[in-house]
Amino acid sequence: MSKRFEGKNAVVTGASRGIGAGIAERLAADGANVTIVARTLDKHSVLPGSLNETLEKLNSYGGTHASIVADMGDPESRENVIAEAKQQLGGPIDILVNNAAAAIYQPLAEYPLRRSRLMMEINFHAPLDLSQQALPDMIEGGEGWIVNLSSATANHEPGPPYREGDLVEVMGIYGASKAALNRMTNAFAVEMYDKGIRINTIEPRAAVLSPGADIKVGEILAPEQIESMEAMVEASVFLCDCDKDYTGKVCSSLDLIEEQALTVMTLGGDEPYPGGIRPIGSPLLDK
């Protein structure tokens, strides 16, 4: 039986763990050949997950899969990512998922310039760079899909008065980098519309407790502020084969699931995820 992404080649950055690993697994489960990109090949000093662990999962679904060790904060390290992925997968890249991100939270009054430059390099310049690398083949083929992972922190804080506490006061640079990503995505979509290339951003409506996010914010979030990894992946994968006219959008995961009446599936894509939009074990499942 034909699978949804059979014959498609995909690149997913930041895929050693978390949302990137989940998207890569779902694409592979649905038939895509996938190259995953991250800095961690075997073992991170703090966080669980690695390229080799994700690659082992992808290979369990069949198809051709590979990994590239690259630092999205280093232009030289990422300059040949798409060319190398084409060679690994045996053809042009149809789907690019720019998931890799840096999140360094700190008040603006004391924010070091070095850190703000790093955030923009990884969260804005790297997606721009990889998109530019992938676009010539997409243009030649007459279609392509680019999905950029964004964040609701790109939105302006309403007020005054303003909220106090949580992370509101320390996410300014992170949110600014994601706002830039959203604007770049829309401009790219306008430019590429008549070439059949769909370019969108997707952001969690609630938090997805990937290993890194769990460490940063897991203890301060209420159950209603958390969505399942599977929900975020479901919404992201929709954008990996959306129609030509679905482009240039800043999408929210749970809103997109509702809008498109999507069924949240497991990462293996073979059955509905029992928790739906909430993680299994969430107290909201019983309400």
Concise structural overview:
By secondary structure, this protein is an alpha/beta fold. The protein has a single domain (9-286), classed as NAD(P)-binding Rossmann-like Domain (Rossmann fold, 3-Layer(aba) Sandwich), CATH 3.40.50. Helices cover 38% and strands 14% of the residues.
SSE order and pairing:
Layout lengths: L8 E5 L4 H12 L3 E6 L12 H9 L5 E5 L5 H4 L2 H9 L5 E4 L14 H29 L2 E6 L22 H21 L4 E7 L3 E2 L2 H7 L8 E2 L1 H10 L11 E3 H7 L28
Parallel strand pairs: 1-2, 1-4, 2-3, 4-5, 5-6, 6-9, 7-8
Residue ranges: pLDDT <50 for 5 or more in a row?
Answer: 213-218
Helix content: 25-40%
CATH first level: which class? Alpha Beta
Order of helices and strands: EHEHEHHEHEHEEHEHEH
The N- to C-terminal Cα distance equals 38 Å
The protein's oligomeric status is single chain
Total number of strands: 9
> Major β-sheet, in short?
7 strands, parallel
| CATH-derived topology | Rossmann fold
Strand adjacency order, main sheet: 3-2-1-4-5-6-9
> What is the 3D shape?
globular
CATH superfamily: NAD(P)-binding Rossmann-like Domain
Annotated CATH architecture: 3-Layer(aba) Sandwich
Beta percentage is 5-15%
Compute the average pLDDT.
Answer: 92
Number of domains: 1
Figure out the total of helices.
9
Structural class comes to: alpha/beta
